[in-house]
Specification:
By secondary structure, this protein is of the alpha/beta class. It has a domain of 224 residues: NAD(P)-binding Rossmann-like Domain (Rossmann fold). The protein contains eleven helices and 13 strands. The strands form four sheets. It has a seven-stranded parallel sheet, with helices on both faces. Strand 5, helix 6 and strand 6 form a beta-alpha-beta unit. Helix 1 packs across helix 8. This is UDP-glucose 4-epimerase.
């Protein structure tokens, strides 16, 4: 099966390309390199021993996307490409709605036109907002999103569901990620944000490597064990493997209007300070951090109940938070000190 991976040079996308290859799929990458770079493709090649087709293009470009679908004849699509910074989305909401939703519409129309059968969407636990009860299950009511980024994911899920139910010949799954961290154990690919990171772990590793003077923890007065936010952190390689399982599940479905959602998490919550402490243990580096004010758009605490993904998709997280932080640190050391 030939699979289009949008945003395939990004953090989660690049790891998923590796796992797709190892599972016998044929990945094709498109990426506009807005928040990634060509070096990632070299890392993928070193891990897999193969150069995968790569197209530098924007998913919002209807004609380019249609031409690519016509040329490659895809069996499935995994759609990662999106803007993803919560704070930036609060500052620039129109950019997020335009980029994240138009790209989805372009891809869904192309998938229908060229008879693509399977679609996996990169969604997020942000669709739950701040849930009233924890852990969250897939039937937990979606709360109003706390950021425009989160709202784009909720709207996108609704678009995909409604489209699939119109029977276009497409089956789809939305994977609601919790918090991906880590890197490939080879340290050949990992999280490589352009500019100031929007995620916690790159900030931690860049501070530990001396690239940043200190780390700011946003808020210490939440109703959590130590006052800092609680998240369900998942190793990116585990998350990448979930996409392979999603494609396999879609391939088994006989209903032409099949659509479902899955939480992809470990089922355990860790505070920001617990994450920092674990990083210090596995790295042997004492972090310089300060406590700052709360950040707009942040949810106080959220973690998954993973029973559905375990039982239906036959996937479960295998790697620990310590392994994820070790791999993230090895990746940071490689790109910082081995240039």
């Amino acid at each position: 099966m030939k699979i289009l991976v949008t945003g395939g040079a990004g953090f989660i996308g690049s790891h998923t390309v590796v796992e797709l290859h190892q599972a016998g799929f044929e990945p094709v990458i498109i990426d506009n390199l807005y928040n990634s770079n060509h070096g990632v493709l070299e890392g993928i090649r070193k891990i897999t021993g193969k150069d995968f087709p790569f197209y530098e293009m924007d998913c919002n470009d209807t004609e380019q996307v249609r031409e690519l679908f016509r040329k490659e004849q895809f069996d499935g699509v995994i759609h990662f490409a999106a803007y993803k910074a919560v704070g930036e989305s609060v500052e620039k909401p129109l950019n997020y709605y335009e980029n994240n939703l138009i790209s989805l519409l372009v891809l869904l129309r192309a998938a229908k036109e060229f008879n693509v059968k399977s679609f996996v969407f990169s969604s997020s636990c942000t669709v739950y907002g701040q849930p009233e009860h924890l852990p969250v299950t897939e039937s937990t009511p979606r709360q109003p999103a706390t950021s425009p980024y989160g709202n784009t994911k909720a709207i996108a899920e609704d678009i995909i569901r409604d489209h699939v139910h119109s029977k276009p010949g497409l089956k789809a799954i939305s994977l609601r990620y919790f918090n991906p961290i880590g890197a490939h154990e080879s340290a050949l690919i990992g999280e490589l944000p352009n500019g100031v990171p929007s995620n916690l772990v790159p900030f931690i590793t860049q501070t530990a490597a001396g690239l940043r003077p200190s780390l700011t923890v946003f808020g210490s007065d939440y109703d959590t064990p130590d006052g800092t936010c609680v998240r369900d952190f998942i190793h990116v390689v585990d998350l990448a493997k979930a996409h392979v399982k999603a494609l396999e599940l879609l391939d088994q479905q006989t209903d032409q209007d099949y659509y479902d959602v899955f939480n992809v998490g470990t089922g355990e919550g860790y505070t920001v300070l617990q994450l920092i402490s674990t990083f210090e243990e596995v790295s042997g580096v004492k972090l310089n951090y300060t406590i700052g004010p709360r950040r707009p758009g942040d949810v106080e605490k959220i973690y998954a109940q993973a029973d559905k993904v375990n039982n239906v998709m036959k996937w479960r997280a295998e790697k620990s938070i310590a392994e994820a932080l070790r791999d993230a640190w090895n990746w940071q050391k490689k790109i910082t000190f081995e240039k």
